[in-house]
Amino acid sequence: MRKRKSAIALTLVAALAVAACGDDDNESGNTSGPAETSAPTDSSAAPETTGGGESGGTLVFGTSSDPVVLDGAYVSDGESLRVIDQIFETLVTTEPGGTEIVPALAESWTASDDGLEWTFNLRQGVTFHDDSAFNADAVCFNFDRWYNFTGVAQSAAVSYYWSTVFGGFSDGATPSLYGGCEAADENTAVITLTAPSAAFLSGLAVSAFVIASPDALTTYEADKVGGTDDAPTFDGTFGFEHPIGTGPFKFESWAPGDKLTIVRYDGYWGDKAILDKVIFKPIADGPARRTALETGEIQGYDLVDPADAAALAAAGFEVLHRPAFNVGYVGFNQAKPPLDNIKIRQAIAYALNREALVSAKYPEGAQVATQFQPPELFGWSADVPQYDYDPDMARQLIAESGVTDLTLEFYYPSDVSRPYMPDPTANFEAFKADLEAVGFTIVPKTAPWRSGYLDDVDAGNAQIYLLGWTGDFGDPDNFVGTFFRTPQVAWGFENQEIFDALTTARDTADTAERTALYEEANKLIMEFLPGVPYVHTQPALAFAANVTGYVPSPVSLESFATVSLG
Amino acid sequence: MATVQEHLQSLMGARAVESTGSSLGREAFRRLRANRIAVIGASIMLFFVVVAILAPWLAPHDPRVNTWFDQIRPASIPGPSGDHWFGLDESGRDELSRIIFGARSSLVIGIVSLAIGAVFGLLLGVLAGGLGGRIDALIMRVTDVLLAVPSLLLALSVAAVMGQSRTAVMVAVAVPNVPLFARLLRSSMLAERQKDYVSAAVSVGIPRRRLVLGHILPNSVGPMIVQGTLALATAVIDAAALSFLGLGSADPTVPEWGRMLANAQKYTNVAPHLAIFPGVVIMITALGFNLFGEALREALDPKLRR
Amino acid sequence: MFKFILRRLLLLIPILLGLSFLLFVWVRALPGGPATALLGERATPERIAEVNRLYGFDQPVLEQYLRYLSRIIRFDFGQSITLRRDVTEEMLRRFPATIELSAAAMVFAVGVGVPLGFVAAKRERTWVDNGAVIASLVGVSVPVFFLAQILKMVFAERLGWLPSIGRLEPVRELQAHTNFNLIDSLIEFDRGAFVDTVKHLLLPGLALGTIPLAIIARITRASVMEVLNEDYVRTARAKGMSRRVVNRRHVLRNALLPIVTVVGLQTGLLLSGAVLTERVFAWGGIGGLIGGAVLDKDYPVIQGGVMFIAVVFVLVNLVVDVLYAVIDPRIRVH
């Protein structure tokens, strides 16, 4: 017994000793502090690298969850898009770090005079990862595939972006902007629209419109979608095992819960990726991601918590900020009284101490929002009505409103961190205190983000709710148009003046005119006060000190191809 | 953890049930008082209950009002100071007051879930032990099934169905107690039934119910109290675990230790005090119940000579 | 002996049946029915009808239960709502991770707990004994996720001795044969991977195993103490038998029973504690999957996970019962 105990103790000590000594054949250091690279082993990368840093190496990036599926047409969640953006490409894209439209798989394009025919001159010599050729047929195959979605694939949970940009599908149930696609010759694709659209081109930059290998799409049954509208299932293997695109990286393997690996594609048409490999490791717990960066187990992660940004920067890590392209707001459902009363809405706006919340809970670079789009986007107006913190004014307005029942059901999401709302609970608590201070009674309501909260808001169950939006492309219609151009259950109002103003602004061709129209619209909106926007943030990413070349984008369209280690 | 107590009970402590009530009770009490561990445990328990009850008078501030929100910055949350002995929490509230009122939440959760679990469990146990036969077998199968699922998972499943509320947590935490109390009472009753005084009473014609309620139940009280105190400890910890996973009351301003511990995980590098205080308090409270429960078990076991 | 095992195995069936029934009832116990569970409050009448049709919720209950049962027997739990994948596939893929972690924790708990309890029992009422009792009681009072966070903070963050997440370094490639990394690394003769696996197992194993350790130590102590005080032991000693022989032949054998039982029961604690520990250490096993599924109301995953774990738990206890019979022949008789 004594012997046994000492034997065990010895084993434990031995195990610890082994652990402390480390192993001799590991590739990347497991010590605390920034990680090192390994020497590049394959020769193909050597002569052609441009950009700074040595070629080669593996980068491990911590994500908050596994992607849902690697098929651009089916997803709208950030983690799926993150990986899709490395493997696939669209016809046009946004410039790195900005919102201007620049060529990608299409070298140039022209529109016919009536704005209905768009001719795309495709890049030549591009191949898919399975060595099939990229050409106009492939482009049209993809567009037609989306247009022909049926059943569950048409639901908002699946093909959200197609519906946003093009509207309906081939079944004609809803009118569609899409008229058709033709391969004029091998390298020219002509897309026909049913109506002229100013937002069409920037819409194409969205990752939903990535071009995938037609062979792979067919062979691996990418179109096999089952389940229900709200709980779709993807039954083909395309999006899980064979996502084949044209991007600088190609898919290698995916073990859900463990890691997803992509490797450099040496047949890429443009500047080859510098890294050999990128590994995406899902770590659900936010603080665990930070710890993993500090110990060197990962070399980067996204959505750095405000509490950590300063500390990480001070410790020598690279903290990068995305330019502000989002808005966090308190939404009102005016179908639920007393929110239909303008004075109550104004009272709430005056009661909320937005400054205090932003300075207490948001990192450097966050600013108080005055309207539903960020200042960087054209159409932002400096002349909107301001509702500076004034609890007395709030109480006065409440008195004037004549409303006696001041109970409000305030919804906030549990267990999620959004770029504009890193800590929804903290925001809720602050706002609750502000509202209670002027006389409202707040009933807290919460639900998990993915399974309940968004559904509740969209169904119109939520009276007051915390929500926000990150822009998909650089057009005000993507912000205020998405919210207020059409009646929506979540907002619960019908205001034809606003609907018309936004529709006109969207359909106008001239940019200067559009700017003026959107500025007017924003003024109208803030007078009507369908909600209270409160913050624009600059979401942060953190990297190990030796990681260079990552370019944060306001629309989160970021490539690892320019990243290098050391 | 509680399942072990139960099993140990049946293995070694079944004899503890062989009591005739009063003399062992007094003997147990004497042993308890002499046992330092029991005294420490009882003191902790008492302290916890007193703090929970007197919270409104003990707490220096309102735990739900974020009076000092302006002192909060993303990377700086004031720690313990002269004004705030436990510092501020992440929303600018007095941490000491929240810990004090948190005792109240924990006490309520513990007692309610214990009550729910014990009542249903005892009911099942009495039915099984008293009625015997097929009903006994059925109830035993039901408890077998419930015991086949580890207790936290059982609580999780219940909470998942019931949604996000404090009630859900209380019911969820209560459920694993049901089979335990059922088993406990049943084995107590079975042991008692074999005693002479029972067959004597039955032959004389005393109705079963009076026998059960008047004699058998009271004699089983000892192990039930032991189980109860241990269940309280588990309740506090399991409720904290459920909060850690995101379940629990919808209102984050209500102080509850488990929730406070879960929220503090984000701030361990800027404000470790937010995690340390609730964590330590949960530990100490659970420890108090465990110490006392263990000492009580040993005191009740006539086999263990001291 | 064989009959004994067979009989116990047969007893498993009603338990599993009962469990499946419970799980079946459980989802339908939701207010609004299972369709609402899947749809949330977004349920419109058309959507509810569609879900009912798709999943067969509009059929008579008995039919539903039979169909459900036939699927369960084939281990078909349907698709995960959030992961969009087959539940059983996911379970099988992630199960080894949880088993490996639980096994490591159990090795730690037994390997340290039993000797500790033994020593404490032999030194009854000395400071060693009292210390052990108090330490074990403290051990069961610590919430496992709190302990996990502290261990991580001290050993991974501050000291940097051990990794903080995952089962292997992300850059390391290990061919997955069984998905048990210890075994796979041995199959591949990959010493580096083996060492790396052990390194990653240490912190979560320690965190997970501490509570069972405390309990096992205490039970061992109580059990050994009881046996030591038995008359036959004192008789043997009085007869002059050496301490060691007495220990091995009498004390150990008889003290083993409760210890073995407790180990079996602790497996349940390990499997459920894994839910919390796996989240803290991003372990990628079933525990983490279930933890996430609870909030997301991913009922197929929760059903499948609970079933899997319950089956394992029951099987482990079956093994315990068999061991019982091996250790104590008297038990076989009935």
Termini gap of chain C: 11 Å
Largest pleated sheet of chain C: none
CATH superfamily of chain C: MetI-like
Which descriptor suits the 3D outline of chain A? globular
Query: Looking across the biggest beta sheet of chain A, what order are the strands in?
Result: 10-11-12-1-13-21-14
Average pLDDT of chain C works out at 79
Largest sheet of chain A, if any?
A: 7 strands, mixed
The whole-angstrom Rg of chain C is: 24 Å
Low-pLDDT parts of chain C are none
Number of E strands of chain A: 23
Query: In DSSP terms, counting alpha (H) and pi (I) runs of 4 or more, how many helices of chain A?
Result: 17
- Which architecture of chain C per CATH? Orthogonal Bundle
Give a summary of the structure in a few sentences.
The complex is a heterotrimer of chains A (566), B (306) and C (334). With 306 residues, chain B is mostly helical.
Can you tell me about this structure?
The complex is a heterotrimer of chains A (566), B (306) and C (334). By secondary structure, chain A is of the alpha+beta class. Helix content of chain A is 31%, strand content 20%. Chain A contains 17 helices and 23 strands. Chain A has a 7-stranded mixed beta sheet, with helices on both faces. Chain A has a 6-stranded mixed beta sheet with strand order 16-20-15-19-17-18. In chain A, strands 4-5-7-6 form a 4-stranded antiparallel beta sheet, covered by helices on one side. Chain A is globular, with a radius of gyration of 26 Å. In chain B, 73% of the residues lie in helices and 0% in strands. Chain B has 14 helices and no strands. In chain B, α5 runs antiparallel to α6 (133-148) and α9 (177-193) packs antiparallel against α12. The radius of gyration of chain B is 22 Å and the shape is elongated. With 334 residues, chain C is mostly helical. In chain C, 78% of the residues lie in helices and 0% in strands. The N and C termini of chain C lie close together (11 Å). The chains are: A alpha+beta (566), B mainly alpha (306), C mainly alpha (334). Chains in contact: A-B, A-C, B-C. At the A-C interface, α1, β9, β12, α8 and α14 of A face α3, α5, α7, α9 and α11 of C.
